[in-house]
Amino acid sequence: MTEVRRTLWPRPVELAWLLGTAIVFAGLDVFLNVAAPTTGALGPYAGLALELGCDFSLLLLFRFPGAVAGLLVVASLAMLASDLFWPGLLMPADKPTLMTVPTITPVVLTQLAKLVDRRRLLWIGGVLALLATRPWDPAWNTTPFGLLSTAFPVAVSLYFEARRQLLRSLRDRAERAEREQHLLAEHAIAEERRRLAGEMHDVVTHRLSLMVLHAGALGVVSAEPAVRSAAEDIRREGAQALDELRDLVGVLRDGSAAGSPAASPAPTSDPAELVAESVAVGVATELSVTGDPGGVSPTVARTAYRVVQEALTNVRKHAPGSSAAVSLRYHAEGLDVRVTNTRARRPPDPALAGSGSGAGLSGLRQRVELVGGRFEAGPEPGGGFRIGAILPAYVPTTEGAPR
Description:
With about 400 residues, the protein is α+β, with helices and mostly antiparallel strands. The chain contains 12 helices and 5 strands. The chain has a 5-stranded mixed beta sheet, with helices on one face.
């Protein structure tokens, strides 16, 4: 069963096309009537009036397809009866054409394929073909023209309608396959993230835990103050790395953190310490903080900490002699971080500038996007550089759950 499209009235473009077609066929019927008028009791314009009525019924086809088809059948019956029993009444005795159906019939049948179901169309086309071809009295000048004006338009319309539905079906299948492929890709990515989270938790966490334990033991047994201080620094940094790794594993697992944050103290994530370290090594650095820092989750706070840390590290490496400004703006939607520096006063130290991996900014961008933020980095007017991030207030991890 084909899809049936029913509208109250055709669209303006369709209405203009139907009106133009009706006018063309009306002009053709007027020309044929002038060439051979009817001579029966109904007058010389009886056949023309019937043809014009069928022509302009095309304008009502979209609203009343069944009624227009019925009008064609009735008109064809009348024309056939006139040709068989009352020559000259509705059909001229000396016909210029060999059709006994209205001239507009092929156009109506092609449009009916869009408006009625296939079964009704075949019934209408079959009845009109029967009246046009007169199989009880086949003739070379009747049957071919009758088939061309009835059966042929129906067959062509059904072919194009089936082709249109096939193309639409193939397009729907392609879109469905694309959606399924996208879902499979997302599922594969999620599985890979979970596998990676498991590997990080089972391998890296184990090694870091051993490092922290060894550093703690070294700080206890060593008698040298410098060694004990260094061991304590290693233990503290290792503990912070464990917490950050646990938080990252939670993000990779879509919210199920690998461990409870209550098991260890919260790592340091205060950008003020980074600013103090930068000032201590000779980089003039200003810090501006607005809003309430307590409104963001610990994961977001540590991400902001890493942004400031990487930015100030780059200033020390690549812009010696410059000054820096750190801006932290806390608001209801999250946190805006911005670090800018002025133009370098002297060339950077080649050994220091080449000590990094070259992937600091790209890794920072990934870290920011991992928590749902936006990252930007680029030169400033006057030769400086800026690094900024717009972070959300909350990331769905166990540690970042709303309190």
